[in-house]
Amino acid sequence: MDFNTLVVPKAGLARVSADTLMLVLVGAEPKDHAAALEAPLAEALSAALDDGELQAKSGQAVMLHRVVGVKARRLVLAIAADSSAKAWRKALSAGLALVKGGGTSKLVVAAVGEIAAQPAAQALAAAVSEATYLYRHTKPSAPPASKLASVSLIVAKADEAVAKAGLARGIAIASGVDLARELANLPGNHCTPSTLAAAAQQIGKEHGVKVQVLERKDCEKLGMGSFLAVAQGSAEPCKFIVAQYLGGAKKERPIVLVGKGITFDTGGISLKPGAEMDEMKFDMGGAASVLGALKAVAAAKARVNLVVLVPATENMPGGRAVKPGDVVTSMSGKTIEILNTDAEGRLILCDALTYAERFEPAAVVDVATLTGACVIALGHHRSGLFSADEALAAELLAAGDAALDPAWRMPLDDEYDEGLKSNFADMGNIGGRAGGAITAAMFLKRFTAKLRWAHLDIAGTAWKSGAAKGATGRPVGLLAEFVFARAR
Ligand code: BES
Ligand code: MN
Ligand code: ZN
User: Fold this and answer.
1) pLDDT digit string, tens, across residues 242-270
2) What is the position in ligand 1's atom list of the atom closest to the CA of 373?
3) Among 55, 152, 276, 481, which residue is least crowded by beta carbons within 10 Å?
4) Number of the ligand closest to the Cα of 458
5) What is the β-pairing status of strands 74-80 and 61-65?
6) 181 domain residue, yes or no
C-alpha cells in the first residue's frame, strides 16, 4: 500500500483525480459543510442528507457514483460528529467499508472541517490497514480483501510535514498490528513456539534487532522451573525469546515488554471443556502484541531501548504433564503449588519477570490473555491494567486513549493476595473464583519487588468471537504509543 499526502488542489476537490474521493465531514451539522464545498460536491451532500441516504450521525457513510461535475468516479461522504481522533477513525472505517470491496485502486481522502493533521494521518494509515487485512495463510482461496493500492490524504501546505510524520508512524504501527493479527490467527499447528521464535528472528533480520532464543536446556540452567513445568507436557519444544532493540543511548535503561506465548492452551491436566476450545490458539496474543510493538518501534527507528521477552510453550495434558498439587521452584527461588494447571499463564510469566531483572529496566509491562474473569469484568472494549505505580499506570492509560486501544485500571490491594496462600509452597497458583483477574495479577506482583511493573490482561480484547472470529492486533497500538512517548 502506498500512502502519501496531497496539498489541497487549486482547482478544488471536485477536480481531484481518483477512483474514489472520500470526504469526511468533521463536526458541526453536516449540512453546514455544504457552504464550504464546490457546487457539485455541495449539491451531492445536500441531496444525500435530504433523501435520507446519509444520516447526520457519527460513523455514517454513503457512496455515490459518477456525480456530475466530480472527476472521481466515486464519492464517499462520511460523518465524524466531532474533531476527536475517535470520531475521525470511526468515520474512516465506515467509509472504507464501502470502498474496500469495490474497484477502488486509488483513494483520496479529505477532511471537511477542522482536524489535527498528524493524528488524522496516523489514524488514516491505521484504518486502511485494519480494513484491508485478510487472513489467508491456511485459506489461500480467500479472495483478496481489496484492490486498494494507493491512499492520499489532502492537507494544507503548512500541515504537510506533520501529516507525513503521522502517516509514517501510522504505517509503522500498522505493520506491527498486522503481524500480531497474523500470528494470533494462525492455528496452533501452524504457530508453535518455534514459529514465534522465527517471527522474532525475522524482525531481527529486517530491522537490526538482536534476537536470542533460549532452548529448554538453557531455561533449565537458569532455573525456570515454573515455565518448564508448563512446557513439560508438550511434545512441541518450548522457546524463551529474548529480543533487544537498541535505538536509545547505550546506558539508557530499556523498557521491557513481556508477552504470554501459550500457542495452545488445553488447560493441561485441569482440562478445559470442549466448547470454543479452538479459541485457545489465541492464547499467544500477548506474545504476538509485544512482537508487533517491537516491529513498530524498530520500523520507526524510535530512539529508545526496548527488550521483548516471550516465554513460549503449549499447555498440554499427557503422561509427562505437570499435575495439580505438584510443587515447582520458580527462577526467583519461590516455590509454587500448582493447584490448577489451567492457570498456566502466570506460571510462565513469573519466570520471565524474574529474567527481566537482568536488564535493569526503566519499566516492565507484561501482556497476557490471562483470565476469563477479566472478560467478565471489562468485556471486550477495554483491556485490564494493573500497576501499583501511579505514574506508569497513567502513562499506559494515556497511551491507550491516544491509540484508541483503551485500558481500564484495576485494583491491587494486598487483601486480594489472601487466596494465594498454600500449606505446601510459598504460594498456590490460583486464588478462588472471585476477582479472578485481580488474584492472577497479585500472583504476578509477587515477582516484581525489584521492578517498576504493570500488567495488561487482554483476554477480552485480543480477539473477537462469533462470525467475525479473529485476532484484533490489540494492544499493539497502546504499547507502541507508550514506547514512542518515552523515546527521545
Ligand atoms: N488462557 C486462559 C484465559 C482465558 C480464558 C482467556 C478465556 C480468554 C478466554 C488462561 O490460561 C486460563 O485458563 N485461566 C483460567 C484461570 C483459572 C484456572 C484460575 C480461567 O480464566 O479460567
Ligand atoms: Mn489456561
Ligand atoms: Zn492460558
Assistant:
1) 999 999 999 999 999 999 999 999 999 99
2) 21
3) 276
4) 1
5) antiparallel
6) no
**Ligand nearest, relative to CA of residue 261:** 3
Instruction: Flag whether 323 is in a domain.
Output: yes
Q: What is the pTM of this model?
A: 0.98
346 catalytic per annotation: yes
**Residue 139 maps to which CATH number?**
3.40.220.10
272 is catalytic: yes
Query: Which residue in the list 74, 181, 346, 486 is annotated as catalytic?
Result: 346
Same-domain pairing of 148 and 218 = no
Q: Is 432 left (phi over 0), alpha (psi -120 to 50) or beta?
A: left
Q: How far is the CA of 349 from the centre of ligand 2 (A)?
A: 13
* Measured distance between the N- and C-terminal CA atoms of the chain, rounded to whole angstroms: 29
Looking from the CA of residue 270, the nearest atom of ligand 1 is 18
150 and 192 in a single domain? The answer is: no
Q: For residue 117, what are the domain limits?
A: 2-155
Residues 197-245: pLDDT tens digits?
999 999 999 999 999 999 999 999 999 999 999 999 999 999 999 999 9
| Domain identity same for 366 and 414 | yes
Are 243 and 355 part of one and the same domain?
yes
Mutate which of 277, 279, 342, 438 for ligand 1? The one with the most ligand atoms within 8 Å of its CB, which is: 342
Please say whether the dihedral angle defined by the alpha carbons of residues 233, 234, 239 and 240, taken in this order, is positive or negative.
negative
> Is 57 a domain residue?
yes
Of 101, 130, 155, the residue at which a domain comes to its end is 155
Between the CA of 262 and the centroid of ligand 2 the distance, in Å, is 9
Grouping H, G, I as helix, E, B as strand and the rest as coil, residue 352 is helix
Q: Whose CA is nearest to atom 5 of ligand 1?
A: 372
| One domain for residues 136 and 214 | no
**Is residue 302 located within the same domain as residue 444?**
yes
User: What's the structural domain count of the chain?
Assistant: 2
pLDDT digits (tens, 9 = 90+) for 300-343: 999 999 999 999 999 999 999 999 999 999 999 999 999 999 99
Choose, from 253, 272, 450, 464, the residue flagged as catalytic: 272
Compute the distance between CA of residue 313 and CA of residue 291 in angstroms, rounded to an integer. 16
d(CA 461, CA 378): 9
Ligand 1: residues with CB < 6 A are: 265, 283, 340, 342-345, 369-373, 375, 430, 436, 459
With residue 21 as reference, give the H or E element that holds it. Answer: strand 20-26
Residue 203 sits in a domain whose CATH number is 3.40.630.10
Q: Please check whether residues 441 and 383 belong to one and the same domain.
A: yes
422-436 pLDDT per residue, tens = 999 999 999 989 999
**Closest atom of ligand 1 relative to the 436 alpha carbon:** 19
Same domain, 146 and 194: no
What is the Å distance from ligand 3's center to 370 Cα? 6
Under the phi-then-psi rule, with left for phi > 0, alpha for psi from -120 to 50, and beta for the rest, what region is 296? alpha
